[in-house]
Design goal:
Residues 77-90 have a biased composition (Pro residues). This protein is mainly α. Helices cover 51% and strands 0% of the residues. The chain has a domain at 42-67. It has helices at residues 3-27, 42-45, 47-52, 59-66, 92-104.
Length: 109
């Protein structure tokens, strides 16, 4: 055997236990988490249901949590609801038709 052959044999003897150790560690079934230990597994079980469920949110509340409020700025208030339109007065013809209809129905309606 030459000098190079003995050196290769020594390296093989050193690397073989290391390779076996790495292979054994990788072959062990470890308890793995998909997205970290704090990610709830229930979200992974029913993916479609999880994606279809949208939590209710309040934009003003969530935006208020992002940045502290500035006391110099005015506070936004919702506009008042629109007033319902006033009823139009009925024409004399419409009033006469309504009276005739009540007479024919015997005072009902």
């Amino acid at each position: 055997m030459s000098h190079l052959d003995t050196r290769a044999a020594r390296n093989t003897r050193r690397l073989l236990p290391l390779a076996m150790l790495i292979g054994a560690v990788l072959a062990l079934p470890l308890n793995g988490y998909a997205c970290g230990p704090d990610f709830p597994n229930r979200l992974l079980i029913d993916r479609n249901g999880t994606l279809l469920y949208m939590p209710e949110g309040n934009f003003a509340f969530e935006a208020g949590r992002l940045v502290p409020t500035d006391s110099q700025l005015p506070h936004w208030q919702a506009p008042p609801p629109p007033m319902p339109p006033k009823p139009m007065p009925q024409s004399p013809e419409t009033i006469a038709i309504g009276k005739n209809a009540r007479r024919q129905n015997g005072g009902r309606g």
